[in-house]
């Protein structure tokens, strides 16, 4: 039976430092080679990484849906990923939670000289963004990342990575100056995709080119392509649910309806919105 006096199990305080120490101690217990959880002990950086990506997306999803009641839990799940990596890093002698926190705190101080240093705070958010990018570029150079596209994480969602690659290239002048040129390139890639029909490898290649140009168009229009696609996914889910609800009212399922009928119900759902 759980000990009600054990602070790892029962602690309702609202003290930030105390609850952070509690979480770190819980993770250390879970990873203990002799008394820990078999599943947690078996985990590695590689096996936890997919969960980290998933939890980050769930945070973004809760924000997108404005599900504020869920956001606290999703943020906790995301924090747990950092704690997991910190414990493994401590076990391997690579880093600790304290060094992780210190590193990012030092980074925030160094990248905000207008707040923590002698620079004037009187500058625009746009200027601050430019200064931030210059500092990041200097940090990349110190790490030996001298090419323009170095350091853009491979593990990012493809649309997000495409956007970051394009922004990096644009900073050194490799970019269209007129959105009309992007639209022309979009038509060109769409035509090449149509011509690739029947060749699986060429089809995948041309589909990638088309998505890349669409991302570029979104960037020039000031639209986040990842957010735009999430919005459309939500819209599709909502309208298809309306089709299912309409059919269910008559005792049927989508597989029992014709495409024409479902298309009409889709149009009705769209008008209702």
From TrEMBL:
<dbReference type="InterPro" id="IPR011551">
    <property type="entry name" value="NTP_PyrPHydrolase_MazG"/>
</dbReference>
<dbReference type="InterPro" id="IPR048011">
    <property type="entry name" value="NTP-PPase_MazG-like_C"/>
</dbReference>
<dbReference type="Pfam" id="PF01503">
    <property type="entry name" value="PRA-PH"/>
</dbReference>
<keyword id="KW-0175">Coiled coil</keyword>
<dbReference type="GO" id="GO:0046076">
    <property type="term" value="P:dTTP catabolic process"/>
</dbReference>
<dbReference type="InterPro" id="IPR048015">
    <property type="entry name" value="NTP-PPase_MazG-like_N"/>
</dbReference>
<protein>
    <recommendedName>
        <fullName>Nucleoside triphosphate pyrophosphohydrolase</fullName>
        <ecNumber>3.6.1.8</ecNumber>
    </recommendedName>
</protein>
<dbReference type="GO" id="GO:0047693">
    <property type="term" value="F:ATP diphosphatase activity"/>
</dbReference>
<dbReference type="InterPro" id="IPR021130">
    <property type="entry name" value="PRib-ATP_PPHydrolase-like"/>
</dbReference>
<dbReference type="GO" id="GO:0006203">
    <property type="term" value="P:dGTP catabolic process"/>
</dbReference>
<dbReference type="Pfam" id="PF03819">
    <property type="entry name" value="MazG"/>
</dbReference>
<dbReference type="GO" id="GO:0046061">
    <property type="term" value="P:dATP catabolic process"/>
</dbReference>
<comment type="similarity">
    <text>Belongs to the nucleoside triphosphate pyrophosphohydrolase family.</text>
</comment>
<feature type="coiled-coil region">
    <location>
        <begin position="179"/>
        <end position="206"/>
    </location>
</feature>
<dbReference type="GO" id="GO:0006950">
    <property type="term" value="P:response to stress"/>
</dbReference>
<feature type="domain" description="NTP pyrophosphohydrolase MazG-like">
    <location>
        <begin position="43"/>
        <end position="116"/>
    </location>
</feature>
<dbReference type="GO" id="GO:0046047">
    <property type="term" value="P:TTP catabolic process"/>
</dbReference>
<dbReference type="InterPro" id="IPR004518">
    <property type="entry name" value="MazG-like_dom"/>
</dbReference>
<dbReference type="GO" id="GO:0046081">
    <property type="term" value="P:dUTP catabolic process"/>
</dbReference>
<dbReference type="GO" id="GO:0046052">
    <property type="term" value="P:UTP catabolic process"/>
</dbReference>
């Amino acid at each position: 039976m759980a000990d009600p006096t054990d602070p790892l199990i029962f602690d309702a305080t609202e003290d930030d430092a105390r609850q952070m120490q509690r979480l770190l101690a819980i993770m250390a217990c879970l990873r203990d080679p002799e008394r820990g959880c078999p599943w947690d002990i078996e985990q590695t950086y590689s096996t936890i990484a997919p969960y980290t990506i998933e939890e980050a997306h769930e945070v973004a999803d809760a924000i997108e849906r404005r599900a504020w009641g869920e956001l606290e839990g999703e943020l906790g799940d995301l924090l747990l990923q950092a704690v997991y990596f910190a414990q493994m890093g401590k076990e391997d002698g690579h880093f600790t939670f304290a060094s992780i926190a210190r590193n990012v705190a030092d980074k925030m101080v160094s990248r905000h000289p207008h707040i923590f240093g002698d620079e004037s705070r009187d500058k625009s958010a746009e200027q601050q963004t430019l200064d931030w990018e210059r500092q990041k570029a200097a940090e990349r150079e110190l790490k030996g990342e001298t090419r323009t596209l170095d350091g853009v994480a491979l593990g990012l969602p493809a649309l997000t990575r495409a956007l970051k690659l394009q922004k990096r290239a644009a900073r050194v002048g490799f970019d269209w100056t007129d959105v009309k040129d992007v639209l022309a390139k979009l038509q060109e890639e769409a035509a090449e995709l149509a011509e690739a029909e029947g060749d699986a490898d060429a089809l995948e290649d041309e589909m990638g080119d088309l998505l890349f140009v669409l991302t570029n168009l979104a960037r020039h229009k000031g639209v986040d392509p990842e957010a735009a696609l999430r919005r459309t996914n939500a819209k599709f889910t909502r309208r298809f649910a309306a089709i299912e609800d309409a059919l269910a009212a008559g005792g049927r399922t989508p597989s029992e309806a014709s495409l024409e009928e479902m298309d009409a119900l889709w149009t009705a759902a769209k008008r209702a919105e």
